Structures are given as C-alpha cells and as structure tokens.
Amino acid sequence: MTVEYNFEPHRIWFTSDTHFGHANIIKFCNRPFRDVTEMNEEIIRRWNETVPEDGLVFHLGDFCYGGSKEWNDVMYRLHGKIYLILGNHDFKNIRSGYTGRFEHITQQMSIRVGGQGIILNHNPFLCYGGSYRDVWQLFGHVHSGPRSNTGLDHARLQYLFPRQYDVGVDNNDFRPVSFYEVKEKIEAQVRRAQEEAGVHAFIDNEGPRNIVFLDSAIAPKTKAQKSALGRIAEETAARTLEITATDGERLKEAIGRRISAIGGGARYVYLGPITMNDFRQVTVDAKTGITEQNVDDAISLLR
To answer: What is the mean pLDDT of residues 95-122?
Structure first.
C-alpha cells in the first residue's frame, strides 16, 4: 500500500535498522558496542540528542527484536512521532499491543517534503517510479556504512541510482539523519554520478535538457552527415553525447544511468544500429550512417 503525505522539511528525520534488543547484530555489523544493553542505550541517547520531542521520524524497518519487554524498554523513551515502514524482521516481532506508539505503520510510503518526492521502503529498489527524474528512494536493510560492508547485498549497491540513500544507523553514526542531511548527501552522490557519466556539460538551469545519445558505430564521417546531425541541435537545442554498447541491455543501462544523473526534465533519443523495444530511439543503418530522415525522426521525438 502506498500512502502519500506532505511534510515540512525542518521537522523530518529518517532512520532504519536500529535492531534494538538484537545481540547478534553487534557482531554481524561490527557495531562498536560491548553488549546489547550498551547498544540500546547509546542508540536511544543519540536518537534523543538528534530528534526534538516534536520531530517526525520515519523508521524504515527492523525496529526491534524480541517480545513486549524488549519493545517497551525502548519505544516509549524515543523522541518524536514515529512512522514505521515495516522491515523483514518486524513482521515476526511486532505485537498489536504496542502498535499505538506509532503514528502510522505500513509497508511503503510515498511522501513529499518541501516539494521533494520521496519513496520510503525497507529495501533498496532496482527501479522505481521517478528514478530517472528527481524522486529519492530511501531505504535500510543492507547495513552499509564505514564499519559494516560485510552484508550479502553489499556488492549490489553499485547498481543503485544516485538519488537513493541508506538511512540505516550503521551508515549514519547510529542516529537519525535529517531531511537536510539526506538532501546534502544525495546532491553529493548526484554530482559524483554526473562526473563519472560525463554529463556535467548537460546540467543547466535554462532551456530544454534534450540529449542525443549517438552510438559511436555511426559517428558522422561525411560533411553531409555532420551537417545533418548539427540540425538536431539547431532545431531542438539538443546536445550530443557519444555512447558505446555491445547489446541492447547494456545500452539501456548506460543511457538510464546518464538520464538518472542528469535529473528531471531530460528528453533523449538514441541514434544507432541497436534496436530496443519500448525505448526512445531512431534506428540507423550502420552501413549507410545518419540520413536526413533519421534526423527528422530524432527531432520529432525530442519535441
């Protein structure tokens, strides 16, 4: 179930995977605590040091282990109103007797904070609505962080989009992270992604973000082909980014990552010999190269 809300930025914090009462998580994630009591007390202290009593905290799952005693030992000591997005361990540990402590309990939330669209889920998504625009996806579960990169999912994190972020305590000094902190971290990730993808030149605040992904296999060789390609820029203000791929799936991934790094409002067309289903493209014969008809088709897709 997806529930949508609007919130004010200065009231918002995010966290995940506190695992209160879970002794084995200390060893599994290399947490710097002697025992579960010290872990519980230190995470509670840092939580209350960070979140004001009237704050709103979105906890993205795996809140606590054990039964009512373990939950009651921590949940009523925490500052703020807590929205709980259920994690895989919560399903078997949460009890109906203390669900009233939470403002809302759900498996997923879609919220807006100061105009920013955010999808909240316990797990990171490989794809999600808005991944090629400016929508964030915040998650936990994977226990990433400077001390805890030993989880089974760690190798998969390289495939995430730059607008995704792990708000789990292992990745955030064992305390909730504010909306403004997440914003700063995601903006830094986006800048790095833009540099790595070579799309910095495509980031501007004026005019359309139209992009021609030109397959290197059909790079213009003749004066007529170069002139034809230039007409796309003249008529649509598009910029050209050369791209190379050996098959359609790799090409989709390469283009998708660049579009994600560029952000909202980008329109694109691929010019090249690889044909893909459900993709914005103009298929160009590798032997013939770019033609005026190819250019007309590309202009039509960019308008």
So the answer is: 88
Residues 138, 9: Cα–Cα separation, whole Å: 15
Length of the chain: 303
Sheet holding 2-7, edge to edge: 2-7, 108-113, 116-121, 136-139, 164-166
**SS3 label, residue 93:** helix
What domains appear along the chain, each with residue ranges and CATH number? 2-197 (3.60.21.10), 201-302 (3.40.50)
Cα separation, 171 vs 148, in Å, equals 8
96 CB-contact burial (10 Å; exposed 0-12 / middle 13-18 / buried 19+): exposed
Indicate the pairing of strand 177-178 with strand 209-215. Answer: unpaired
CA atoms of 88 and 107, how far apart (whole Å): 10
Considering the chain, what is the average pLDDT of its residues? Answer: 89
CA-to-CA distance for 131 and 119, rounded, in angstroms? 10
Contact 107, 76 (CB under 8 A): no
E strand intervals along 71-215: 81-85, 104-106, 108-113, 116-121, 136-139, 164-166, 177-178, 209-215
* Dihedral sign, Cα of residue 246, residue 248, residue 251, residue 253: negative
For residues 187 and 196, the answer to whether their CB atoms sit within 8 Å is no
pLDDT digits (tens, 9 = 90+) for 271-291: 999 988 778 899 999 999 999
Q: Whole-angstrom Cα distance, residue 136 to residue 162?
A: 9
CB atoms within 10 A of CB 93: 18
DSSP 3-state of 138: strand
Report the relative pairing of strands 12-15 and 177-178 from DSSP bridges.
antiparallel
Give, rounded to a whole angstrom, the gap between the first and last alpha carbons of the chain. 36
